[in-house]
Task: inverse folding
């Protein structure tokens, strides 16, 4: 049976697509699933940095597409989670170096090797976006509780719906204290506006910048509060019904997230 | 011009410097999304206008516009950039005047069209036309380095690169600088710095970032939740006299307007001890 093909997209840049791809991928791998992460941000790749494998890149997505190497040769296995691999993007090429049908072929091939193929989409809705969604059968839309991010996410939800790709939402960088003071939209508000099902809500955490810079996904630290949240997202993706984390619990302030039924 | 032609990485040829009577077109770009291009455009624009300059802000993010929201003008947008390029309306019909300043105008992006709908030559001509009427034309560039980027850069005379103290943002900024005309000397704004994290060695310092990018530093903006609030409300912080971040934007505007302004306002301890991995990532701009 071939694996699931999930694109992680947002419209707006900098909302956490790459961080989400790395952490959800690692959380799935920790649970024993075989996961391949695909960086489709040709020319502006970063997933290799977030995973800390940038020095081990030999071949990339464009070289696979051009038939210069086998797909297996281009995969970089993560040393910490052995069922996690990365297919990196090319850095010195353009998005137009790959076409939609070529992407579909690569993703199909990868889906034979893994339980989950997670496709990290570039920002925007141009050629790179169209490539990233071409081979996907499901989508995770990442947004932050900001008007501009939600407006961009709405555009992307429209495009995914047009393409017949079902989607769920991760609301990222929630600051419960700002929600409480009325300075930030709540997770409920965001889901309501986008009319989308919630897959997870991730609080803002300043350590993410540091771990990202170091190439160590935060789920590596099992004691970190975000590790539990990403693990729950991974379990929901795998089909389990998992209650949402109460951000009012010690260490969290703010609104309850238990109002949602899990998908 | 010579240097631009010699560089294989250069996508675009620089325009000649504008004549003295004409305005300056500055593109605000970054490569990576979400680092603060739109917030920077709105705040620097508002600060320039408050200082008496005639300013127009151009949203080049067709399909994913947001500059109208950050300025609180979304309900006043009737026509957009593509309407002008396609000669459906005149420039005057499409320009939206700011609520607060009679010196500040917005030319919004189309929301339901694609970046590929813009013809680069038309974009250049439009920016030229705006330069005849405004002292500053600030172009808010979309994320990425695709067609939208190329169109946003096409008519500009100068670039401001916005970067956050994150390895991925620095790598993307470095890539973008390599794609800008080499005759330009883009200026750098480091955004969302958290001095206390820098002090703890948990964030890149200004020196770490600019040790890689090596650009003239135009300003440093601290990370503060007030920016999110201001953006959601559509009220640029640059207009808030009590905000330190607002003051930093006003200093950037003053510098752009040619005033002699002291160094960036965020005080950060010198910290040369960052991650060894940083240096090895950038073998120069090939």
Result:
């Amino acid at each position: 049976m071939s694996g699931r093909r999930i694109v992680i997209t947002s419209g707006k840049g900098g909302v956490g697509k790459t961080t989400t791809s790395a952490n959800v991928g690692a959380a799935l791998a920790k649970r024993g699933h075989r996961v391949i992460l695909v960086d489709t941000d040709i020319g502006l790749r970063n997933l290799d940095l977030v995973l800390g494998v940038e020095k081990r890149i030999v071949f990339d997505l464009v070289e696979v597409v051009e038939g210069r190497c086998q797909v297996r040769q281009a995969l970089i296995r993560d040393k910490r989670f052995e069922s996690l691999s990365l297919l990196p993007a090319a850095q010195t090429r353009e998005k137009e170096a790959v076409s939609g049908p070529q992407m579909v072929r690569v993703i199909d091939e990868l889906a034979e090797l893994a339980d989950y193929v997670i496709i990290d989409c570039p920002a925007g809705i141009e050629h790179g976006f169209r490539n990233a969604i071409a081979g996907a059968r499901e989508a995770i839309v990442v947004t932050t509780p900001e008007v501009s991010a939600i407006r961009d996410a709405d555009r992307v939800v429209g495009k995914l719906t047009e393409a017949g790709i079902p989607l769920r939402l991760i609301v990222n960088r929630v600051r419960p204290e700002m929600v409480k003071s009325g300075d930030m939209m709540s997770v409920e508000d965001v889901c309501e506006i986008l009319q989308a099902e919630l897959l997870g809500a991730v609080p803002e955490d300043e350590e993410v910048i540091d771990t990202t810079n170091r190439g160590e996904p935060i789920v590596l630290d099992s004691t970190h509060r975000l590790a539990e949240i990403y693990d729950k997202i991974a379990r929901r993706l795998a089909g389990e019904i998992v209650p949402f984390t109460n951000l009012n619990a010690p260490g969290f302030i703010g609104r309850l997230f238990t109002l949602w039924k899990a998908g | 011009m010579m240097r631009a032609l010699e560089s294989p990485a250069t996508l675009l040829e620089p325009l000649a410097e504008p004549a003295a009577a004409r305005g300056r077109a500055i593109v605000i770009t970054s490569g990576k999304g979400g680092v603060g291009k739109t917030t920077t455009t709105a705040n620097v624009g508002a600060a320039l206008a408050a200082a008496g300059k005639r300013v127009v802000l151009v949203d080049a993010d067709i399909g994913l516009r947001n500059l109208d929201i950050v300025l609180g003008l979304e309900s006043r947008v009737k026509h957009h950039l593509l309407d002008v390029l396609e000669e459906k309306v005149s420039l005057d019909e499409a320009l939206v005047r700011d609520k607060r300043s009679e010196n500040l105008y917005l030319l919004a992006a189309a929301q339901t069209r694609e970046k590929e709908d813009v013809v680069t030559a038309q974009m250049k001509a439009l920016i030229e036309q705006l330069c005849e009427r405004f002292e500053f034309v600030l172009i808010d560039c979309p994320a990425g380095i695709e067609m939208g980027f190329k169109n946003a850069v096409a008519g500009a005379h100068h670039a401001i690169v916005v970067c956050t103290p994150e390895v991925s943002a620095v790598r993307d900024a470095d890539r973008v600088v390599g794609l800008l005309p080499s005759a330009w000397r883009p200026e750098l704004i480091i955004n969302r710095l958290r001095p206390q994290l820098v002090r703890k060695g948990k964030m890149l310092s200004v020196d770490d970032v600019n040790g890689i990018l090596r650009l003239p530093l135009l300003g440093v903006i601290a990370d503060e939740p007030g920016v999110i609030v201001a953006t959601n409300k559509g009220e640029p912080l640059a207009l808030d006299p009590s905000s330190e971040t607002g003051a930093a934007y006003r200093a950037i505007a003053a510098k752009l307007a040619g005033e002699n302004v002291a160094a960036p306002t965020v005080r950060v301890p010198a910290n040369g001890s960052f991650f060894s991995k940083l240096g090895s990532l950038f073998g120069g701009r090939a």
Summary: Chain A has one domain: 4-237.
